[in-house]
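Exam revision sheet. Question 4 asks you to relate a sequence to its structure. Input first:
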Amino acid sequence: MIVFRSFLFPMNALIEYARKSVKPRTSEERSEEKGMLSLESQHKALSELAQDRKYKVVEHFQENMSAYKPGRPIFNQMLQLLRQGKADGILVWHLNRIARNPVDAGQIIFLFDEGVLKSIVTPQRTYLNTAEDKFILQIELAFSKKSSDDSSKTIQENMKTAAAKGQYPARVPMGYLNIDETGRISGKRFDSKKQVMLEELGRPLKRIEIDPVCGPLMVQLFAEAATGRHGLTDLLVLANRLGLRAPRRGGALTKSSLGNILRNPFYTGCFWYRGELHSDLIQHEPLISKDVFTAVQKALKDRGFSKKEIHTYQFTGTMTCGECGSAISGQIQKGHKYYHCSRWKARFGAPCDQRKYYREEWLEEQVAVYLEELTLPSAVLNCALEAFELREGDALAQAKLQKEALQKNLKKEQQKLHNLFQLKISPGNEDGSLLDEDDYRDQRKLIKKEVADLEKAILDLEMNDASWMENCREFFDFASQLKQVFLDGDHTTKKAIIHGLGKAHLNHGKVQFELKEPYSYLPKLAYAMTPQKISSEPKNSQLKTGNSPVLYPDRTVWWTLLYEIRTHFRHHLFINPAQSLSVISTT
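Answer key, C-alpha cells:
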C-alpha cells in the first residue's frame, strides 16, 4: 500500500540522492544493481515525483559507490548539509540507496532523533519523524544490512566451495586471464587481440586461460630466475624489457610485486586460498614445472641478502669457506682480484684458520681442471643416448601414438561441448523446444566429465612421455663441452656454471665441489664408461657402439646408472646455466 502523507506534514526543502554501485561486492548485489535504475533514470524519476507533489529540491547528489561499508564522501556531504539546516528531508528512489551498513543507518536514525532530519521520501512511502515511522525505518534498514550480510556469507561459501573443487575464486595473477560465462575476457584485462587469439584455439574457453601474450613471457622470466644468476633488481629489468606490466594499473612492475609473482605457486598448478594450499583437481593449466618453481625459490633465498656489486666477482655468492661456512669475499689489489674468507661466522664462535688471499686466476685454473674431469667425450654420451633409445624406443613410440589418439578424442568432445552451447543459445531455441534447460545441463555434465577424463589421461601420459629424453639429451650435450663453455664464457657465465654445479667451497686454497643432480651423475658416468683393460662388451649386447668406449664390465651397475638418470629427467627439468636471454645488462 502506497502512503502519501507529505501534504499533511509540509517540508521546507529536500535533497535528492541517487546512488548506483559500479563495483558490487557479491553476485546478489550485482543482480540487485542490474535491476536498479541508472543514476540518470533515478534523477528523472525523482524529479517527476518532486514536480507532481510540489516538493522543493535544493540539491541533487549522485554517487557511484557501494554502500556496503561507511565512508561515502557524497553521502557524508549530504548529511553535513542536513546538519547545517539547508534541508530537512531526503528524496531517494529506495531506502537501500541510503544505507546498507549499520553506521550509515545509525546516522540517519540519529538525525531523526535530533530533529535535524524530518522526512525521507521514496516513491513507495514517506517516512516522517514519528515513533512509528522510525521503527519501520529501522526495520527496513536492518533488512538491508541483513541482506548484505547474507549475500556476503553466501558468496564466501560459494568461493570456498569453488576452491575445494580446484577453481580459483579470485582474479588470476599476471600470465593468466579470467573468462566470463560468455567466453569473453572479463574485467579491465579485456584485449580484443588476445580475445581473437583465444578464440582461434577452436574450443570452448575455460574460466581461466593462459594469457596468449604474457604467458610465454612469464615462462621466460621464471626460466631466467631459476638459473640463480640474478637478483630481484636484475629480474625487474628483465620483466620491464619483456614488456610485462602491472595488470591493474598498467604501469611498470615494482620489486615487491615481482617478488610476490615469483613466489606465487599458482603458476605450477596450485593456489593458496584463505591460508590453505589447494593442489587437487586444479582446473587451470600450469605455466611452469614445480622443479623450476623450486629452483626460483632457492635462488631468491640464496640471493636474498646479496648486495649489488660494483665489480664482477665470479666466486662471490657461489663459494663458501670450507672450514667455517662463511661467504667468500672478493677485492681488487694492484689490478688483480683476490678472494678470502669473510670470517662472518667466526664472529659467532665458528672456528676458522683461513686467512690467506687467493688470486682469481689460481681458483679459475682449479675449476677448469675439475671440469675437465667431469667433461665426458661426445662418443661416451652418444653411447648412453643410444642405450636410452634402444631401451625406451618402443615404449616412447607407443606412448606417442596413444597420446595422439587421446588428443583427437579430446578435440571431438570439446567440439561437442561447443556445438551443445551453440544449440542452447541459438535463436530457434528461445523457447527451449530444441534443447530445454534440464537436457542441456545433463548432456553438458556428461561431456565435461568425458573431457576431464581425457585431459587427465593425457596429463598422466605426459608425465612419462619423451620430453624427459630431450632434457637428457640437452644435459649430455652441455656436459660434453662443460670445460670449454667455462673457459670461453664471461664472468656472468662462469659464475652461473659454478652456481649450477652445486656447492663450492674454498678450503686452504683448494676449490672443492658438492655436486648436485644432474651433475652428480657425471663422475659416475666417467667411471662407468671409461675403457678398462680387462673389460669387454656385455654378452648379447644390442648396443652398436662402433668406436665407442668399451662399457663397464658390470652390466647391472651400467643399467642401474642409466635408470637413475632416466628417473631424474622424468621428474626434473634441466636448466642450462650457460644459457641467457641476453636482455639483462650487467655492470
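Marking note for examiners. Residues 1-10, 533-546, 548-553, 581-587 have pLDDT under 50 and may be disordered.
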